Amino acid sequence: MSNITRLLKLMVCALVLTACGARPPLVELGALMFSDSFDAPDGWDQYDSGDIQVVIENGSFRFDVPSGGYYLSRDGREHTDIILEVTARILSDDRSNGVGIICRAQPDGDGYYFLIGNDGSATIRRGQDREADPLVAWTRTNAVRTGNASNTLRAACIGQTLALWVNGEFIGSTTDPLYSSGQTGLVGVTTRRGDRLAVDFSGLYGYTPAE
What we know:
By secondary structure, the protein is mostly beta strands. It is 6% helix and 56% strand.
């Protein structure tokens, strides 16, 4: 293999999360810890202040929020190791928006963020001190359906291992020791000034990892 060919292969490996032999961690579902059909509040943080709506209604959890960063809600249930699954349907057209799940969410909003973007990208991030630092950088993937399609996210937080799947396809994994427990959260992200995010979350499930 020439040096140029070797260099090109390394560049491709760096850009594509699931290429070049990357394998998902061995994660199997154990017992169902909880499920939420969003027919009732059940401990979730909700906001309805006119311009910001984070409300449970008609069997879905609707985020309708302006530009300005991260909007989140926590459910009040403490967990350590967990596998979370939720379906999200983005209703707004702005492709700079993102949505996802938080595991081990802290009272100040810190925790592990598993996000997809409406541009067909995905990331794993660590919320700390009002910043969301990338553990797996935003990367385009065909697994994420764009537009107003529904996407099902599965996030695993087991020990220090963090892993993300979208629509059954492995996106990426990493390890981090910072948070060992916390709550479940849902999150919407808006970054472009003047644009709004509208998303409906449905069918949230939390599982223990299989032993």
